[in-house]
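If I may wish for something, please sit down with the protein I am sending here and say whether tokens and residues agree:
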Amino acid sequence: MLKRTEYNGWAAGQLENRWLRIHVLPMLGGRIIQLEMNGYEYFYVDHSLSEIKLDSSRLGKNGAWLNAGGEKIWPAPQGWSSDDQWPGPPDPVIDSGEYTLDESGISGIVLTSPFDPYTGLQISREISLSETTTEAAINVTFSNKSKKAVKWSVWPVCQLNAAGNINADRYQIICPVNPESIFCDGFTVMHGLSNSPQYRITDHSNLVVSYKYLVGKVGLDTDSGWAAYLDKETGKTFILRFSYCAGKKYPENTSFQVWTSGRGLTWSRGIIKEHSNDPSLNPPYMEMELLSPLEEIEPGNSFNFKYTMAASTIPENSGILSVNSCCVIADHLKAEALNDKISVTGKYGVFTEGKIKLFINDLCRYEMDVMPLKGVSLSVCIDKENLLCNEACGIKLVLYDKADRFLGLIENI
């Protein structure tokens, strides 16, 4: 249920369940300004904007961009060379316009923009928060309110916190590369250093962007359907899940992009820009950016793009290997014979409260309670003599809810 409240001095709306609290700012571009789990705030927010009073321009001083933070919806492609590119931010309608907020959605709230004459669009999105999990479902609609056909991609841009100690690669964004990528490295560098130490491909074919306060941007044509943000120090994770449409055209041939704010040089619109090394002037944050296929929308028609966001916790100082509908996988399920025992290990983060059960040869040999606020470290030793055969023929880890109802398979080996 929507709660009308304030956030950072702005009129806001709030959705809340047992695990998550989502704050939205209709007055500033209809953005999700913050997502928090048990007091942990995932999104970057410029709290100095609490002192800003918008005038009729809906922009900052001298037309400056009001980078409030949070997660917002933009149209892509971005550019300044033709009418079929969006020349923002800043943008007084889409990025910082006054949206409406109501509860007209089927199962959540709806934020709706004013009509934007430049793009021809009116943007709305429905946000629905699960009653039992840390997942929020988002359905974005681009409606063509103009008198001509337009072609745009839905571009959700989420700014994530990267403040504090950045040593030991504390903040990371992880996304699998497409095994049939058109990019030779599975990704393309769009801004910043082409050999930046922030980028690496793992043995699991994931691109890991480790934040080092260096400005840069990379794009991927990933078909994995997920991307993740990780604060290794706390184990807090933020997951985006989305669909990929093979064969369709995407802006710059990318379905996912990562921007890192920091020091360094970029080249844009014929100008070399130097980005400050002072965090008070150039705040530290990372961006996860989804992109839908480019869609031509006839006058009076609309186009939808759906995705979900979720939060979890993995064991501290772990990495992320994969994500499925049940959990975040920090360390895959492994079994090792140790004399007369079998050792089974794995590390995970779940999206709901329940219990995991370890089955060996289809018999439950171990179970433990789990919840999204605490990382799951599985470490079990089973006597071989208690098994139906000398070696484990099949091992699987399964998630159940508190009422012992099946939720899904975590992993099997």
